[in-house]
Design goal:
Distance between the termini: 34 Å
Structural class: mainly alpha
Helix content: over 70%
């Protein structure tokens, strides 16, 4: 089996499917077909849970998958947060925090890679980052679910849950972003030398 063929694994196909679901979600959201948008986002979130599990169980981990999976998450979540913020269903500042964190992380990894650092080996995904992703998905599901099932989403319990999730996501974004920046400073080449000691 060639290198290219090894990339056509079930986890990678699920990740690509998640990317393709993002524009579908946006169209449904813009058309205010909230039940369909909620279902689409839920399916996308399910693929996020499945691809990693399948990769471990079937031993189908790949370098492509390691890059595609977090990228697919960021595309889906950033797009969703922007959509919700435009509608005024989440605070504008939270969308700014979420988007800024992801831009900083992607930019920082690009700079490290350009500087000769083996990003895949030196910068491992943090557990808090995975928790942050889960919290973001739960917030989006709560907001969409509230609007889809309760109209204005003004149920007291739902509002409380959303406020808790908003605060949780904000804290996790700031803390995880700061931890990544701290790791970058420790991985950045010194004295013009690259990350491989050259």
């Amino acid at each position: 089996m060639g290198i290219g063929e090894r990339n056509w694994t079930i986890p990678n196909l699920l990740t690509i499917f998640r990317v393709l679901l993002t524009p579908v979600f946006v169209v449904l959201f813009m058309q205010e077909r909230l039940f369909s948008a909620l279902l689409t986002f839920g399916v996308a979130g399910l693929t996020d849970a499945l691809d990693g599990t399948i990769a471990r169980v079937l031993h189908q981990r790949s370098r492509l998958g390691a890059m595609l999976d977090p990228l697919a998450d960021k595309i889906l979540l950033v797009t969703s947060f922007i959509c919700l913020a435009i509608k005024g269903w989440i605070p504008d500042w939270l969308a700014v925090v979420v988007v800024s964190r992801d831009v900083i992380i992607v930019g920082g990894l690009a700079v490290l890679s350009f500087s000769g650092v083996d990003v895949k080996e030196r910068i491992r995904p943090l557990m808090i980052s995975k928790i942050n992703t889960t919290a973001q998905m739960l917030l989006i599901l709560a907001v969409l679910g509230g609007r889809a099932f309760f109209g204005n989403g003004d149920e007291a319990a739902l509002i409380l849950a959303q406020h808790v999730l908003v605060g949780t996501v904000a804290v996790l974004c700031v803390v995880s972003g700061a931890l990544y920046i701290f790791k970058w400073f420790g991985s950045f080449p010194e004295d013009g030398k690259n990350g491989n000691g050259g």
